[in-house]
Amino acid sequence: MFLKLFAESGLSLDRLKSLLEVGAAGSIVKAAEGDPVRQSQYSRQIKELEDFFRIKLIERQGKGTRLTPSGKELARISRFFMLGLSNFQRGCLAEEQTFRIGANATFIRHFLLPALSPSQKPGASYATEVVSDNEIERRLHDLTLDFGIVGNAAISRPLQTKVLGRWKLELWVPKALRLDETGARRSFQEQRLPLALAGGELDGLALPALVKYPAHLACSNFLEAAAALEQQELGAFLPDYLAADGRSKSFMRVRIPKIDSLTFHCHLAWNPRLLRLNPHATRRRDLLARLLSQRIAG
Fold it and tell me: Would you call 114 helix, strand, or coil by DSSP?
């Protein structure tokens, strides 16, 4: 069945590993981390793979390199194969697996870390990464993430999702700005209200009222926007789950009907190929979904 595949030299796990490392780093130079010897090794091993398959696997991009479509496909096949081998090895050695979960910084801090605390008995090791929704989708396809938390369930096949919960976006304004709710609303509509906006986490919510709003302070996530709000000089849009019990003493909740009427969702996403490679992943997925849904419903 595989006679032709092994009829000539050039194909090896080590060479495929080099292709994966170059693909993950984005270029041979980055994968080699400035080591000219390793850079030469990567170049040689990928050239040997190209000779074996008789196709280009990398191409120049500016001053660097990137995988060609064929290179990306070979990397995907290789990753799938090596993950299977790695899972088999861990099973033989009775080693615990670490599951990699990608999400935005606010979700990790507010929901994921508490859900994965030892007191919740999550039953395995986990590693969290701050990753955008688009990057989560790509890395789930590549199997460089095991699970991801995304805001949009309409992600590309074969990825699958399960809704975890819903949340609302709220505008909070410091009372120190000496505005009543009507004045604060008008000031927002006229784009005069000084705001700290979490652009990194707002960008994917499709909110026209905020897309071109001139933020006084641009933040990468809601946690930073909440910290800026506490200085009582800037307003901020925050998820309802970040609204502290005592916030109303120093801050005012301002109703913005077009935003208040919206409901956002968070979903657990995974690649079903992972479940076929690793039967334990199904149990981890179900446990994660239960623990996170409980935390969000809270």
Answer: helix
